[in-house]
Structure formats: C-alpha cells, structure tokens
Amino acid sequence: MENKIIFHIDVNSAYLSWEAVYRIHHLGRQTDLRTIPSAVGGDISKRHGIILAKSLPAKRYDIRTGEPVVDALRKCPELVLVPPNYELYEKSSKAFMAVLNKYTDAVEQFSIDEAFMDMTGTKQLFGEPVIAATAIKDEIFHTLGFTVNVGISSNKLLAKMASDFKKPNLVHTLFPNEIRKKMWPLPVRDLFFVGGASERKLHALGIRTIGELACADVTMLKSVLKKHGEVIWNFANGRDVSAVEPVPVDNKGYGNSTTISFDVTDSETAKMVLLSLAETVGRRLRRDHMRAETASVGIRYHDLNYVSHQCRLKSATNITKEIYDAACMLFDELWDGAPIRLLGVHTSHVSRNESSRQISLFDHTDYEKLERLDRAIDSIRERFGADAVQRASFLKQDKLDHLGGGISREKRTVNYSALEEE
For a designed S-S bond to 298, which of 250, 308, 377, 414 qualifies (C-beta 3.0 to 4.6 A apart)? Predict the structure, then answer.
C-alpha cells in the first residue's frame, strides 16, 4: 500500500497579498504593498480597528495580526493601512482553489486562504512530492500573482506544521523521520492547537518546546489539560489520523455577532440588533436545510466583559421569528443595563431532521406559513440583492444594518477611486 502524501497550501499574508496583486494588475498602482510596511486593517471609527494581515516589512516592527490598529501605528507611524475587501478575497480564494483542483479532486478547503490536498498516487502524473508542490506553487504565482507555502507530509497535522516554516513562496517537508530535527526544537506555542492558555500551563510544567511536550508523561498532561492534553501530546509526536475531506462536514452550530459602532444603552435598540442577527442566522440555517434546538445570546459590555445565556427551543427550527423571540427572552434575562458593545445570536444542536412539532391547543401560530415566508424572502434577496426586502422597522435606521453579523457591509467592497494613491 502506497504511503499517504498530504499537502497543505497556505497563501502568504493572504489579504495583504490579494490587495497588492489587485492594486498592481487591475488598478495600475506602482507601489507593491508587500514590499513596504503595510497592513489590512479595520475601521477604528466603527470599532473594528484590528490588523487583519500585514506585510513582511511590517512584521519587522513586531506588528501582529489581531492587534489594535492604534497599537500597530504606535509601533510604526508610517504603516500604510488599507481597508478590507472581502468580495475581492472571496474571488481570489475561488481562483486559488480552482488551481488546486486541477491536481487532485481530494481538496479540503480549511479556510479562505489555506487547503489540504491528498496527493497520494499522483507521482506518475506530477512527479515526486517536492516537484509537484513546486509546480503548484509556481502555477499559482504565475497565473494569480501571489505566493504560497506548501507543506508536505504523510498526514494533515505535519503538512500544516511544515507550511508554517520559513516564508514566503517555499516548499517544506516534515515526514515522521524529520520530526525530531525540524519540529521538536520549536516553541510549544508553534504547535497546532496550542493557544495562549495552554502555553502558560505547559510553561508552568517546565515544558517550553514541542520536543519536551512529546516526551512528557501523558497522564500528567491529562490531569492538567484534560482531554486537550492528550490531543496535543499526540500532535507533538506527529500523530494525526484525520483524512482530507473534500465534502465539508455539517456545522455543529450557526451563529453571528456584531460589534456595534456605538454603545447600546436601551432595550429597543438592542432588540433591533438581535433581529438583524436572527435574520442572518435563520437564513444560513435554511440555506443548509438545518434546524436548531438550542439558542443563545452573548453580550460584550463596554468594559469588554462578556456574558451569555442559552435556552432549549420548544421545537427544532430555522424560522427567523422563533430565533428572534428566543433571543429577546434570553436578552431580557441576561442584560444588567450596562452599555453594550457587542451582541451575538447563536444556535446549536442542529440537525437535518424535518420539522416535527408538538402541537399545542393554545398556540395558534402558523409555523408552515412563517417558514414559507422566510424562504420566499431568502429567494428574493438571493436574486435581487440583500436589500431587496427588509423589515419596515429598519427603514429609518441609519446606524444599524438590517442583516447583522458576519462580514459587515463596509468590508465587502471598497471604492478604490475614493482612496488616495499610496
């Protein structure tokens, strides 16, 4: 039986790279954002002011993805900031995936800018793994204009770890016999699935490298980190049995949240935000033919403290009104009156089961009619645009979007002609 060959392909500084390529090849700009201290960042005025991607020159100033824009500008006052354009990124991602699908039909999109490929059995078509990976990397650069790193191994975990080695535009291998030399000396934080909290606990145990984690007593790790301790111990030893999944698995839950551009201090406005979130969550459930049995609401206050509350729904549903009614009830039970910065509506315990309701003599709601209405509105918005139909209560709203959460409206496209030249 032939050994598995798995590739992990990761776009280098994806959003920044896609912006740079578009500006050079479509707008005729002379400056390549990738060669100067630059970053894609949110709008501070709308409280979305974080760094989403940065160039390699910006990285030299210790600018980090996810940090506030104001902190990044403090480190590098000459940092060139550009607004995000998710419509461009989605198109770039589709073009990226189209190239990968030319080499194998076993492609699993892991995120907008990375994917796994099962290249087992393709040696006769594309040559040795490193040769095939180099061909993919070069085709992406020559046809699409941006660079990628390719990691090669016998499983997904090691392939992903390999793609994170030196960047950009490189191919790396990390087979089991290379783990001791290439992976074990790395800081434990570099291991997939090890976050800040886990890192601190491991440091408290005297574990600072992936090799030290791999050689640690798994029983001791489980006593401190529970099941997660065993998972990362296996990862440190290069063990991963997950397969490349070309067909996405079903979501375990659906939810959306939104950071509001002003502090919400009244229940009426908060419930308008909850309605906008229920609209988008319900639409996603219906799109995937799913129904949820549990709903929850999350609140982040102006002091960044976060609280949440959940309830079991009377019946599994994807009807916007039911999700909204449950969200309002949870909000009333949860809110303490403090100014609100963020609201979220989430659902869980989802399934593809057909609707089955416990009939009540005292409930005269026509749920079938509500569901047909929701699906008709979904269809109109799909055909004529998101704003083709909206609830009358939003018509006089100039601060709230009638479809809240997810990627906000201002991030979906950019008026480049209104921007100053770099």
Answer: 308
pLDDT of res. 422:
44
Nearest to 347 by CA among 306, 300, 381, 298: 298
Catalytically active residues are 114
- Those residues whose C-beta lies under 8 Å from the C-beta of residue 36, and which sit 6 or more positions away, are 55, 57, 80
Would you state the structure tokens that stand for residue 134, as one six-digit string?
Answer: 């180099």
pLDDT of residue 229: 96
> Is the CA virtual torsion 17, 23, 28, 30 positive or negative?
negative
Check residue 410 and give its pLDDT: 62
- Cβ-proximal residues to 402 (8 Å cutoff; 6+ apart), any chain: 276, 279, 387, 390, 391, 394
245: number of Cβ within 10 Å: 15
Place of tokens 């074990």: 184
- Is pLDDT above 90 for 406? no
pLDDT confidence of residue 401: 87
Q: What pTM was computed for the model?
A: 0.81
Rounded-to-integer distance, Cα 247 and Cα 227, Å: 27
Question: Rounded mean pLDDT of the chain?
Answer: 91
**Which alpha helices (H) appear in 153-266, and where do they start and end?**
156-163, 179-182, 196-204, 210-214, 218-225, 227-236
CA–CA separation, 388 and 93 (whole Å): 27
